[in-house]
Amino acid sequence: MEVAVVLLLMRNSIVSIIIPCFNQSQYLTECLKSVVAQTARDWEAIVVDDASRDGDAIQTIVAGLQDSRIRLVRHEQNGGLAAARNTGVRHSSAETIAPLDADDKLAPTYLEVAFENLRHESVGFIYFDIQCFGGASDLWCSMPFDPAVLIKDREFIQGTAPLKRVVWEQSGGWCEEAIFKKTDEDVDFWLSAVERGFIGKYVAQPLYHYRRHSAAMSSQARTYVLPIYRRLYERHRNLILRYSSYSEWMARGWLEVAKGHLHLKQPHRAFACGMWVYVTSRYRRPQAFQVMRSSLLMARYKIAKPIKSALSAAKRQRGNNAV
Question: What single DSSP character describes residue 180?
């Protein structure tokens, strides 16, 4: 159950910005200031406090901005990112939806460019290049919309891509199943949108700024994703089989697991996962071979280093004995 805390009066807007926030009050001010600084002025922002421990701080920040376009909605219980986004959309009024994570921020022209591109009838959602900040300053470049690549190769649509409200309505919103509470609720959502015939548009501008947390770098080790891939297949079987096969789809998941084990410096597990991909997938064999090669090099280093240390210690000991 959710309780709406309407701080200031609602107004009709052309874009509704949906900002889930869970224990992230330390970043929320910077996030909201990037919204207030938008060149497009006709917007509303719905901050969804997902039962945060710092809920009072979140309320103070929102109230302190004294902007009638920003409102706060609270969850009594934590529902996860998908549930928070859905709550925000249900409390919004615009036909254009712009999700925004509470620790990220927007370039000043983000909403202006988003709205202009979404005015085209054939476009259901748009996505940008992503500029990282914080723990890293990488630029993540995307690619033109292609459902085949989305299925066979990689996700290239940002989880916070702006979209028309009709896409959210017909796709059923973000899936709130427990299995997606940790990750990939965005992958499921875009697969649902593509299944229903919606088309995306790529805008090659780094207008979304994504915060890289040094403490969260271990999240790159996605060794837990196989059940998620199976559930995604169950939910979107027809779409996946249109461009790929079950074995190729699962090989993509196994490859993620292999890379996760490499990230955690677990070469033997990485090698086993890479071998599985190499045997079952023709499409991903070069990537699987690279994983296996890296695993062997890492394993050799992990074995060689203690041996080298032991030999050095033995030499020192012999020298001491000689004295």
Answer: G
**DSSP-assigned letter for residue 223:** T
235-247 mean pLDDT: 95
Count of domains observed in the chain: 2
Contact (Cβ atoms closer than 8 angstroms) between residue 154 and residue 243: no
Give per-residue pLDDT as tens, 170-214.
999 999 999 999 899 999 999 999 999 999 999 999 999 999 986
- Is there a domain that residue 126 lies in? yes
Residues 119 and 201 occupy one common structural domain: yes
Q: Are strands 105-106 and 96-99 parallel, antiparallel or unpaired?
A: unpaired
- Containing structural domain, residue 270: 245-322
CATH number where 46 lies: 3.90.550.10
Q: Which residue, chain included where needed, has tokens 């290049």?
A: 129
Length of the chain measured in residues: 323
Q: How far apart are CA 86 and CA 82, in angstroms?
A: 6
* Percentage helix, strand, coil for the chain under 3-state DSSP, each rounded to 5: 50, 20, 30
CA end-to-end span of the chain: 78
Q: What are the DSSP E strand ranges found in the chain?
A: 2-5, 15-21, 43-49, 70-75, 96-99, 105-106, 125-134, 139-140, 163-164, 200-212
